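A favour between colleagues. Tell me how you read the following sequence-structure pair.

===
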Amino acid sequence: MRQPSVIARRVAAASVSLVVAAGAAACGPKDNDAKGSGGDSTPHKGGTLTVLNSEPQTDFDPARLYTSGGGNVPSLVFRTLTTRNRANGADGAKVVPDLATDTGRPSKDATVWTYTLKKGLTYEDGTPITSADIKYGIERSFAPELSGGAPYLRDWLAGAADYQGPYKDKKGLSAIETPDDRTIVFHLNKPEGEFPFLATQTQFAPVPRSKDTGTKYEEHPVSSGPYEVVENENDGEHVLLKRNPHWSAATDDQRKAYPDTIDVRSGLDSSVINQRLSASQGADAAAVTTDTNLGPAELAKVTGDKDLAARVGTGHFGYTNYIAFNPAVKPFDNPKVREAIAYAVDRSSVVNAAGGSALAEPATTFLPNQKSFGYTPYDPFPAGPSGNPAKARQLLAQAGYKNGLTVTLTHSNAKDFATSPEIATALQDALKKAGITVKLQGLENNDYRDTVHNVKTEPGFFLAGWGADWPSGGPFLAPIFDGRQIVKDGANFNASRLDDKSVNDEIDSINKLTDLDAAAKRWGALDKKIGERALVVPLFHPVYKRLYGKDVRNIVIGDWTGVLDISQVAVK
């Protein structure tokens, strides 16, 4: 379950498909009618939906995309074996069938998963979709020239670790069998009860071998979804989609496909996006964004305008911003020092620095406060919303620092209200009250990521964040606390270097469970067990606030992504 590029993608998620280096919990749209604003809220077919984004939809190839639940824009073109449930709030955190008839049939030990394709599935040219196409789509994702997708398949599929893709190895993956055109069987090297979640990744989209053009496939990938690519300019800066005439709602109960055309415009400044959505003039009246939040100042302006406030969608995606410790660096090898910092933190000031309570929710658990993750309320170092500097001083004295100590906090200089100077300064002020002098080390974003995720340069005390690849405790806890995922020659996210056999064994035991509700309870218990060791200090779960145009209807925001689902949107 190693995720070598997840944090970069989640931090870049201040813009990309899961967006903003943050996300939180609870339910779907709170500030808006789920059917949209305006007089006629009934969704109708027709029109053009414009998508205004900051980051381009680069690498528009199912092999190269790193998405969860099928992605947002990608999910309009690429269908997968399973997908996310297109529903508001917690219901939107469930995995449901897409191309397959069900979410998968596991063997007794969850090492073999079998899927049957629905009848009547076709591509944009009317040719049938087969199980062999899904197998080939997965195999090409192993090709070095098509890298960028999630790494799980290489780790999970039996004998796949050294596979180099179908361009170099024509034999293919023996771990994937296709006994007939509608059946596909996956053989895993270890039990994985969450395989249905993995099957939502775009690597599971079918690709017809005869239409594969290698690295040029992204220019016109063959659609299995309700829309096909008409234009793809400047590597995803402008993507124009039109209806796929061979898509059938009879085989797809997840995508509504109301608009005739989807026009994705990217590379825009976030302030410009919000200004255009606010004004809602011309084509912008039927526009949305899938990657741009309202900032604190913008939100204050919008809140004061009744009409604008009615066009704000609130979303929650499983993400936690936290303080990370590297115990290999003194004085953070001393648990009492880490506990003292946990008590000294003033979460109310941190939340204010993150934009206020409308944009951030205080966190005392590492897991986001959503049922699907296994959220179990606990606070191992109860200091109240404003911290407990007296308790922190007491612990420092026990650690041998009765006169206080001086430490350096590393953060990013990016203005993302997450790992940035505002948060660092709030922590600096709070810790000062406990006798801890904090020196701030701000790094440019790329340098920051390279520094804090390299075991050779990792600081002892830094700001971090983590978002899950799907709504479960597994991809949340394992990369950060599984000792077998410590990476010494690449991107490492287990900053605490925790390698506890009991923790590793429990991760393996939970991964065997195909009862996801039972697994969630176990993840919550494991979160509490780890949390008591003060290896991290959870700070807050961010909240998404997104504007949409005045002619947009049928707003659906599920907890899987926390952002407006454009597969559900209609325009006036």
In short: Residues 1-39 have pLDDT under 50 and may be disordered. The CA atoms of residues 64 and 323 lie 31 Å apart.
